[in-house]
Each structure stands twice: as C-alpha cells, then as structure tokens.
Specification:
heterodimer, A: mainly beta, 12 strands, B: 116 residues, mainly beta, seven-stranded mixed β-sheet, 47% strand, globular
Chain lengths: 114, 116
C-alpha cells in the first residue's frame, strides 16, 4: 500500500535559518506529491505540489523536488520567518491506481524563533 | 467565493450516541472527501464521493461509520454507537476532479468530535 514518512518534529529554528523537512514515500503507481501546511487555528492549505519526476514545486519561498530514484520529496526554504511556524504535512495521491484520496505523513511541527 | 464549510465546529457527545457531521463543499466541486485526524497525526482517508456515489469507502473503519451525499453537494458523515476512540477532528475536502489531472483538494476547518 501507499505510505508517507516524514521527519519527526518539532523542528526549532532561528529566523533566517535554512529549513529542510525530509519526506519519503512508498507508492504502488506513479504518485503526485504534495506539501500541505496547517497554521495555528487554521485549516490545511496546499503549499506546493509536483506531478512527475524531477518536477520542482515552489510557493512562498518553499521548494520541493520530486525525486523518483530516492522516492523523496524534501521541503526546503532558504530563510525561514516566524510566520512560517506551522505543521507541515507531506502527502501523495496515486492516480494510476485510481486512488484519488491523499495519503499523509504524520506531520512535522516547525517553530521559528525571532 | 466561499470555501469548504463544516458544521458543527465542535461536537461533544456521550459514548453510545449517534452523531452527524455536515460538509458543504465549494460550489461546482464534484469530488468530496472525508478524513479523520487524530491528535499529533496526519489526516487519514475515510471515504470519497464522485457526485452522489461513494467511489471509494475503503477508509471507513467499521460499519458504525456511514456517509451520504444525496444531491451531489452537501455530505453528511454519520457515526452510530460512538466510542471514545472516535474522538478526533473530522476533515472534509472537495476538488474539481476535472479529469485533466487537477486534483487539488481544498479542506474545511474540521469538526472536532469528543466522545466522553
């Protein structure tokens, strides 16, 4: 079956530090990959996505590259801000198998200190 | 336009009771999903509707859980004989499912269910 594994948190960084949150996946077909973010008191929001190998998704300074050879989709940001403090979820959907529903990782809490 | 809305935002019930959770998807979205998120975990898929029919209900944990979408818009998740382990945030999402690969799911704020 499909699964997503992401690094456990919390990740605590100082403002302007470099961020990496690791995500690896297992899928039966050729999945699309997503990062969702959940800010305090808010609902899940799509942050970025990639649908095929070597695609790079990017948004709000965050980037992630679809690496089929390592089955990974690590999230990176060059300089984090306090406002980036949130829980980040890596997810996949496996359209090849007709599985439109998202399979999520357990989430990584990011805390950015001023 | 309005996003996905869910009611109630919070529901406290007693063990053994019946509950209904409602989801209003974004207008025009044909696909609707229910997920359950336990504390400290990622959302787990429950059921997916395409139009009025349940296209995939493989995530429903047991026969106490049931969902409907009779007119292809609003959906209701129904839980019978609630148990304390059902306590979680229940999330609803909708998407266009245009067939062109645009499967972005938009999530509602969730209903926090507490079973005492």
């Amino acid at each position: 079956g499909n699964s997503v594994t992401q690094m456990e948190g919390p990740v605590t960084l100082s403002e302007e530090a470099f961020l990496t949150i690791n995500c690896t996946y297992t899928a039966t077909g050729y999945p699309s990959l997503f990062w969702y973010v959940q800010y305090p008191g808010e609902g899940l929001q799509l942050l970025l996505k990639a649908t095929k190998a070597d695609d790079k998704g990017s948004n709000k300074g965050f980037e992630a590259t679809y690496r089929k050879e390592t089955t990974s989709f690590h999230l990176e940001k060059g300089s984090v801000q306090v406002s980036d403090s949130a829980v980040y979820f890596c997810a996949l959907s496996d359209m090849d198998t007709g599985r439109r529903a998202l399979t999520f990782g357990s989430g990584t809490r990011l805390q950015v200190q001023p | 336009g309005a996003g996905v809305s869910q009611t109630p935002s919070n529901k406290v019930t007693e063990k053994g009771k019946y509950v209904e959770l409602r989801c209003d998807p974004i207008s025009g979205h044909t696909a609707l999903y229910w997920y359950r998120q336990s504390l400290g975990q990622g959302p787990e898929f429950l059921i997916y509707f395409q139009g009025t029919g349940a296209a995939d209900d493989s995530g429903l944990p047991n026969d106490r859980f049931f969902a409907v979408r009779p007119e292809g818009s609003v959906s209701t998740l129904k839980i019978q004989r609630t148990e304390r382990g059902d306590s979680a945030v229940y999330l609803c999402a909708s998407s266009l499912n245009s067939g062109t690969g645009n499967n972005e799911q938009f999530f509602g704020p969730g209903t926090r269910l507490t079973v005492l």
